[in-house]
């Protein structure tokens, strides 16, 4: 069983930055691909970014490419989402997901999910 806890969300002005964290339990964290998704009010869940188990491969949605960086610290059992140049349309609850297969994470059907952290970007 893997438990994921997101943190780092908050209120930021347009153009600002936030770094989200997802802390994972379990000694096998380093074997899991991880991803970030978001869901805004009235919208479906949207893929944001993903990273392979070793951190060597990253994937980004076109909507955030160039503004967002996903990374992981295996020693700290944590995956990060650095978000820069934030826009009001980035406002959403951000969730992290984990699975043994990066393709499964990318598809939005990862086995494990966190509870989410709110990001609000004001204009």
What does this structure look like?
The structure is a single chain. By secondary structure, the chain is mostly beta strands. Helix content is 4%, strand content 48%. It has one helix spanning 102-106; strands spanning 4-7, 10-13, 18-24, 33-39, 46-51, 58-60, 68-73, 78-83, 92-99, 112-113, 117-122. The longest helix is centred in the C-terminal third of the chain and has 5 residues, at 102-106. The model has no long low-confidence stretch (mean pLDDT 96).
Describe the structure using short key phrases:
11 strands; globular; mainly beta; 4% helix; 7-stranded mixed β-sheet
List the secondary-structure elements in sequence, H or E. EEEEEEEEEHEE
Strand content: over 45%
Largest beta-sheet characterization: 7 strands, mixed
Low-confidence stretches: none
**Topology, number of strands:** 11
Oligomer: single chain
The helix/strand class is mainly beta
Helix content: under 10%
Distance from N terminus to C terminus (CA atoms, Å) equals 40 Å
Query: What is the residue-mean pLDDT, rounded to a whole number?
Result: 96
Global morphology: globular
Radius of gyration: 13 Å
Tally the helices: what do you get? 1
Provide a short characterization of the protein structure.
Helix content is 4%, strand content 48%. By secondary structure, the protein is mainly beta.
List the topology elements.
Blueprint: E1 4-7, E2 10-13, E3 18-24, E4 33-39, E5 46-51, E6 58-60, E7 68-73, E8 78-83, E9 92-99, H1 102-106, E10 112-113, E11 117-122
Parallel strand pairs: 2-11
Antiparallel strand pairs: 1-3, 3-8, 4-5, 4-9, 5-6, 7-8, 9-10, 9-11
């Amino acid at each position: 069983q893997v438990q994921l806890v997101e943190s780092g969300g908050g209120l930021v002005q347009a153009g600002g930055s936030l770094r989200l964290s997802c802390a994972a339990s379990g000694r096998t964290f380093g074997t899991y691909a991880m991803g970030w998704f978001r869901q805004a009010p009235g919208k479906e869940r949207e893929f944001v970014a993903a990273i392979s188990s070793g951190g060597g491969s990253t994937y980004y949605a076109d909507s955030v490419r160039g503004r967002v960086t996903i990374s992981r610290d295996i020693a700290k059992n944590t995956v990060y989402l650095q978000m820069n140049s934030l826009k009001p349309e980035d406002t959403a609850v951000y969730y992290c997901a984990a699975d043994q297969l990066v393709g499964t994470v990318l598809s939005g059907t990862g086995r494990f999910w966190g509870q989410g952290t709110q990001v609000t970007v004001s204009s």
